[in-house]
Amino acid sequence: MSVKKLPFTRDDLERIASRFPTPFHIYDEKTIRGNVRELVRAFAWNEGFKEYFAVKATPNPFILKIMKGEGCGTDCSSLPELLLSEKAGIVGHDIMFTSNDTPAAEYVKARELDAIINLDDISHIPFLERHAGIPDTISVRYNPGKLREGSFIMGSPENAKYGFTREQVLRGLSQLSQKGARRFGLHTFIVSNELNPDCFVTTADMLFDLALEIQEKLGLRVEFVNISGGIGIPYRPEQEKVDLARVGDGIREKYEAKIRKGGLHPVSIFTECGRAMTGPAGFLVSRVLHKKEIYKTHIGVDACMANLMRPGMYGAYHHITVAGKEDRAPDHVYDVTGSLCESIDRFAVDRPLPEIEIGDLVVIHDTGAHGHAMGFNYNGKLRSSELLLRQDGQVVQIRRPETVADYFATLDFNDLGSFRA
Ligand SMILES: *Cc1c(COP(=O)(O)O)cnc(C)c1O
């Protein structure tokens, strides 16, 4: 079981909403820092351990600055994410650049920042050499294919577009070494939102085996293994949080048996968690605008799928609390819906909740990762603000809401006047 509690009361939320209109995402700094510290503690045994926060989960420079303060780097996947990381003061080997189908300009910027480039394909070796040069330190992304199962969001590795085959990892590292690279790392990303801690132990073990094979066949020493992200969070109250200490201890056991025994020590362990760091720290706060009684009762809120896509896109469960009604019985059944002209625009389907009235504040849990970040403008919907609840109780706006002017920013209405239809 996981406890689904709000870090604020209804009165707090009404006070916040009087300064920053709903809908908004609000992130709890204390929870974020706590999650990072728990991860770092789980790997305290590994001297070179580093968490590279997955920027795509919550691409906000204020969040990145908190991560930097906790000693994290960033995992970037695009030029704008590299620039965001740079703005937050995270550069050099504190960035891992994991992209796919990569444009040349992105490799150029990654090299300029001296980010650790994690190649997605063997054909990118000559591509990188031509456009940006081969760096001293390089990583390759391994796709184990049939050897591993995958997950709902990621699909099976064999069908996935990512990474090198095992044979290509060996061939690729040999090429990279011939082209002057001196320090090598391995990366893999197989599962998403996985709650079974043993899965991450198996992943690390698989990379340790590969590192040993590389040592044996190529005589090259792998200096770091990046087990990436994918650590799940208990979106449902009946689910259990991943025991990070158990993940760390399990990986340590494999490390001793393989890496230390095989003479490869020291190897640094890297992670790229997004969801597990910020997910549970975020809440989408929305006000009830309408209550519609047709074949079902629809609670119409002022947020929509443009603010949080996961329920519509994946049918994902997000817990909902009606602020101020935490202790009332969930004796009504509602669909909680947004205003998009799409049937899938529902935050909850047939959800038992306490009786809801117009004007209530509906709080959607676990929106701190892959929430605002996945927002879009379809139907002319504008993305909301992002707020941060600081550790001292202050609430600051870390991104203002979009305006109609933002929505129009890429259009030139002057040209429209002379445009003959
Ligand atoms: C999305 C992604 C992550 C982060 O995934 P989470 O599920 O948020 O932990 C890490 N690494 C790579 C390469 C990714 O694509």
How many individual β-strands?
17
Sheet with most strands: 9 strands, mixed
Give the helix level as a range of percent: 25-40%
Tally of structural domains: 2
What does this structure look like?
It is a single chain. Helix 9 (244-260) links the parallel strand 8 and strand 9. Strands 1, 10, 11, 12, 13, 14, 15, 16 and 17 form a 9-stranded mixed sheet that branches. An 8-stranded parallel barrel has the order 2-3-4-5-6-7-8-9, surrounded by 6 helices. The chain has helices spanning 10-19, 29-42, 61-69, 79-87, 104-112, 124-131, 166-178, 197-218, 244-260, 275-278, 310-314, 404-408, 413-418; strands spanning 24-28, 50-54, 73-76, 95-98, 116-119, 137-141, 183-187, 222-226, 268-271, 282-293, 297-301, 320-322, 332-337, 346-353, 361-365, 385-389, 395-399. The longest helix is centred in the middle third of the chain and has 22 residues, at 197-218. It has 2 domains: 91-271, Alpha-Beta Barrel (TIM Barrel); 280-403, Lyase, Ornithine Decarboxylase, Chain A, domain 1, CATH 2.40.37. 31% of the residues lie in helices and 21% in strands. It has 421 residues and is an alpha/beta fold. Residues 54, 56-57, 75, 98, 189, 192-193, 228-231, 272-276, 369 line the site of pyridoxal-5'-phosphate. Pyridoxal-5'-phosphate is lined by residues 54, 56-57, 75, 98, 189, 192-193, 228-231, 272-276, 369.
